[in-house]
């Protein structure tokens, strides 16, 4: 990742409105498949973007924000898929959400999650 982009993410100030939360989550969402548990981490911030929700940025939101910034600026340990090699999908679902990992040769290719 470009060092200038890493610096801009690290210096991103905590959102002060639902619009600013959407902006940050838009950037972070682009990389969601590289971030294990993305939906679970982003859930509290996502709730702040809903209609008729009072915007209160608390310690839990700040913790999630900092965790996403950290995950966006560190190198994910993913592998590039190989043609002709079988994939394995691990999934887990509950009433709270769904999580999946796409693997090949015991290495993670991608993550996916929804809450």
Characterize the structure shown:
It comes from Rubus argutus. This is Reverse transcriptase/retrotransposon-derived protein RNase H-like domain-containing protein. Residues 57-114 form the Reverse transcriptase/retrotransposon-derived protein RNase H-like domain. The chain contains four helices and three strands, in the order ααααβββ. With 115 residues, the protein is an alpha+beta fold. A three-stranded antiparallel beta sheet has the order 1-2-3. α3 crosses α4. The longest helix has 15 residues, at 59-73.
Number of helices: 4
Average pLDDT for all residues: 87
Overall radius of gyration: 16 Å
Number of extended strands:
3
Stretches where pLDDT falls below 50 for ≥5 residues? none
Strand order of the largest sheet: 1-2-3
Classify the beta-strand content into a percent band: 15-25%
Distance between the termini: 28 Å
- Fraction of helical residues: 40-55%
The run of helices and strands is HHHHEEE
Return the structural class.
Answer: alpha+beta
Shape: globular
Profile the largest sheet. Answer: 3 strands, antiparallel
Question: What secondary-structure arrangement, pairings included, does this model have?
Answer:
Layout: H1 3-10, H2 18-30, H3 38-47, H4 59-73, E1 88-93, E2 98-104, E3 107-114
Antiparallel strand pairs: 1-2, 2-3
Protein name: Reverse transcriptase/retrotransposon-derived protein RNase H-like domain-containing protein
Domain Reverse transcriptase/retrotransposon-derived protein RNase H-like: 57-114
């Amino acid at each position: 990742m470009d060092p200038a982009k890493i610096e801009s993410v690290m210096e991103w100030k905590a959102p002060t409105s639902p619009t600013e939360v959407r902006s940050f989550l838009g950037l972070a969402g682009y990389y969601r498949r590289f971030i294990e548990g993305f939906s679970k981490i982003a859930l509290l911030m996502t709730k702040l973007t809903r209609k008729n929700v009072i915007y209160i940025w608390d310690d839990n939101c700040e913790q999630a924000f900092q965790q996403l910034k950290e995950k966006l600026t560190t190198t994910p340990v993913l592998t590039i898929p190989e043609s002709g090699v079988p994939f394995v999908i691990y999934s887990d679902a509950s009433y709270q959400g769904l999580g999946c990992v796409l693997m090949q040769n015991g290495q993670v290719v991608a993550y996916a999650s929804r809450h």
